[in-house]
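Hello,

Our lab assistant flagged a job as stuck in the queue for most of the afternoon. It eventually completed. Since we weren't sure the result was trustworthy after the delay, we are filing this so someone can double-check. Below is the sequence as submitted and the structure that was eventually returned. Let us know if re-running is recommended.
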Amino acid sequence: MLEIKLNNARSMARGALMELKAGVNRYQRRQLSVPQHGEAKSNEPAVYFLTPDYGAPAGGIRVIYRHVDILNAFGIPAAVVHQRPGFRCDWFDNSTRVLNVGQCRLKRDDLLVLPETEGDLFKRLSPGTRHVIFNQNAHLTWLRDSAYVSRHIAENPCLAGIVTVSQHSADMLSFAFPALDVQRIHLGIDETLFYDDPTPRGQKIAYMPRRGGDDVKQVLELLRNRGALTDWTIVALDGLKHEEVASHLRTSRVFLAFTYQEGFGLPAAEAMACGNYVIGYHGHGGREFFGAGFSAPVEAGDVLGFARQVETAIKSDEGGGSSIRSRGRQAAAFIKAHYGMEREAGDVIRTYSAFLQKREPRFIEAAL
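-- returned structure --
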């Protein structure tokens, strides 16, 4: 009887804690704001990227900073816009132009870019605010206030279109909103950090623990119980600066991808660029670069199949074999050929130049 009462008390305590956290989150969301729109006309229209104040390493935020740098270098005024005065991401080196919401006053022809994860902020836009949604993961489109988000995307006349980063996300968004202008940008992998170092590598496997949840533990325990990892070093890449992640990937042989419903899957692409043989889930967004000849795609959730692929790869390198490195070099060549920084810069400039010049109704002609 006492044990039952204790379990009930624990359950109630967990429920109360969850409700408290949800309440705190709702309060914090209510404090967020968006740049206000004015009627003054700009001689040089600018692009402002509203960006979460998220200080931990996050590839999507790094992409936003890079796109602002690309636009400014080309001569199109752009800035990252954070909520808090003085906030700037410091987990990677940057001199990106950063403003806070209070400093950003939109002029009539400026363009505000909002992330897909901030859908509840769409309703706070001033009437007449020309804007674009930078959707880096179509699976997160309806994360907040889904019904309103769908209405906004389908009906708001000031939404110029959506920008995304993979063919999967572009297809998904075009399916949901067939009348909307959806533009795809090819992300670039920084070759100064993520490159295939020819220096001999030890037996090292890397993965990111914040992705995959319990699947990581199951796969590793399956392999440990087989004795497959005895001579291998397993490195969890967590809480590291951008440069530190790159340094690890340049010295590892295998990267385990546990991504689920990804917009693109940047860590796996960066691992391939560093010459890793990538095993695991493509998360749909990464399907376009998970080539069967130089990676080992695994059905999401199939931890047994995952472990078997890792064991097969390890055995292929026993006795001084080089199968893993050979496939890793093929992967690096593929990423270099298809996801270069120049291609990304061209896509960014073309896409936002077109949106800035756009004055006609937002819907594509074929849908009218």
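-- support follow-up --
The delay was a queue issue, not a problem with the job. The result is valid. The CA atoms of residues 215 and 279 lie 13 Å apart. DSSP finds ten helices and 14 strands in the chain.
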